Amino acid sequence: MLDISLLQIEHWVSAFLFPFFRIASFLMAMPMIGTQLVPARIRMGLAMGITAVLVPVLPAPPVADGLTLHTYVLIAQQILIGAALGFALHIMFEIFAVGGQLIANQMGLGFASMTDPVNGVSVVVLGQFYLMLTMLLFLAMNGHLVMLNVITQSFDIIPVTMINFAAIKFMDIALAGTWMFSGALLMALPAVTSLLVINLSFGIMTKAAPQLNIFAIGFPFTMVMGLLITWISLSGFLGQFELIADHALGVIAQLIEVSDG
Predict the structure, then answer these.
(1) Pairing mode, strands 113-115 and 122-124
(2) pTM score, whole prediction
(3) CA 34, chain centre distance (Å)
(4) Which helix (H) or strand (E) holds 141?
(5) Lowest-pLDDT range, 36-40, 94-98, 134-138, 233-237?
(6) Which UniProt keywords apply (predicted)?
């Protein structure tokens, strides 16, 4: 018979429970894995598997002293850290969705929307195309492995034993929203500028020849030119994705950087 005390059982449960909350909340908030396409049971099983692999190499967490206030605070901190890291990665993917929305509105395809199976909302076709392309590039460049490395390193930067909500920079998460819109604008700027020149040209033609039916000519021409510009811009999509991904990883690293104060 094994002689296992209650203190040992509490230590084993604590060693698994606290990292599990951080990893599970991270997987629930990150793109692809934390979407409606992946059932909750699979995400929960994946979180348990990753936690079981990481627990032996993580610093020893504190022993949970029952359901005390200290235990609840530790659990809340783990959930906030994991959700913040996953949400910061989610913002990177939304840059391309917003950029596709801007281009589609300029070329006259703003009405052509479809239901996004990932988020369950209506997204323009061009934004959905950019979003799918971003996910494929992210997986092809082993981005999911990089994020698993990030969540692993977070236990060394912010150990479970440390209760410090100031270590999570919530203001940087809020400012990441401005970065999302600026990044989307920079991505869509060449196509939007080209389509704006085309629309201005049709405006001048309408002023010079009022009898010209601009709606019968301008709308199809703008749509065709928009698709052509989008096709040409795909050659530089990989470079844009690498720049945005590098910046996103820097933002994620700053979120869990412990301040000197």
Answers:
(1) antiparallel
(2) 0.75
(3) 10
(4) none
(5) 36-40
(6) Bacterial flagellum, Cell membrane, Cell projection, Cilium, Flagellum, Membrane, Transmembrane, Transmembrane helix
Report the C-alpha gap between 93 and 127 in whole angstroms. Answer: 10
Mean pLDDT for 230-248 is 83
Residue length of the chain: 261
Contact between residue 37 and residue 52 where contact means Cβ atoms under 8 Å apart: no
Confidence (pLDDT) at 259:
38
Structure tokens at 45: 């099983």
Query: Alpha carbon of 27 to those of 153, 219, 261: distances in Å?
Result: 15, 43, 30
CA 105 – CA 111 distance, rounded (Å): 8
If we measure between CA atoms, which residue out of 236, 226, 240 comes closest to residue 103? Answer: 226
> Helices (DSSP H) in the chain: which residue ranges?
6-29, 40-54, 69-107, 125-140, 143-157, 170-208, 214-233, 237-255
Residue 185: Cβ-neighbour burial (10 angstroms; 0-12, 13-18, 19+): middle
CA distance 167 to 157: 9
The reported pLDDT for the residue numbered 63 is: 60
Please list, in sequence order, all residues whose beta carbon lies within 8 angstroms of the beta carbon of residue 252, skipping any fewer than 6 positions away: 85, 88, 89, 150
3-state secondary structure of 9: helix
The amino acid sitting at 217 is I
What element of type H or E holds 234?
Answer: none
Mean pLDDT, the chain, rounded, equals 78
Q: Which residue type is seen at 259?
A: S
